Fold:
Amino acid sequence: MKEQLNGIKIKAEQELAAVAGLKELEDLRVNYLGKKGELTSVLRGMGGLSAEERPIIGQLANEVRNLLEASIEQAKTELINKEREARLKAEVIDVTMPGKIQGMGRRHPLSMVLNQIKDVFIGLGYEIAEGPDVELDYYNFEALNIPKDHPARDVQDTFYIKDNILLRTQTSPVQIRVMENKKPPIKIICPGRVYRSDAVDATHSPIFHQVEGLVIDRGVTMGDLVGTLQLFAKSIFGEDTKIRLRPHHFPFTEPSAEVDISCWTCGGKGCRVCKNEGWIEILGAGMVHPKVLEACGIDSEVYSGFAFGLGVERVTMGKFYIDDLRLLFENDLRFLKQF
Structure:
């Protein structure tokens, strides 16, 4: 029986060395250590041994079993590591497509909508402008005609790093930086992340994305703004989409307006999505305030302009009928695979 056990050990080690996959490894384990395996069959024959032989053979059998179990476990670990390394080598990160879900050929819905928005305005001759996420109080508030006692300056709304340094609450500071360094005509959009001290829920997040637009030139009117927004709404939500402007107040534009679009679900008839109003607020807009132009060194008697700002998450939720903002940030593949 010693010869049988030694033979099983040698044979198993030889076969183990030739195993190429986890399925073969599991088959080998069953063949030798399973209920009907070779080692088990030998142990069942120990009943015919003498009292002196039984403990010796039992000890040897246990040593063979332990050795095989350890060898199989080591081989399993090595095979898993090899498969992982091969899979990682096969995966290529496409740095030109940051929104692409690796291995699925899809994009994140935020990236899809942001690219659509960019395409609309680039097609209209706009340039893309960018600026820092960490901003000076001057650019985020003062240059936008927001006085010191304005509620937006309260620490409950804004992440302050120091008294005059903060995380930008809008991408409007980019507009100020462009107006300071470029003479009209100016025609830009400013996409990027913004930060506000909001609690996370189905409609709020402390980090979200905006796209703001700015046009400065001679003779720019409110009619140019309305035409631009109408074209934007039709391009993103469909040809039948209508817009509605309601009077509002923003310190950096005068006159100012909240802009609604006809409900993307009912087409303006009234439904649960639009709270039976037929309209959904989508962005804010207005004519650039003369004080903002003058603060940037632009003669408000010669030039005029309009500005607008929209939340990318809000557009995305409407376009894809998403009812919880958190889904856009949780990276749950069950959700992302739908796109």
Summary: Residues 98-105 have pLDDT under 50 and may be disordered. The chain has eleven helices and twelve strands.
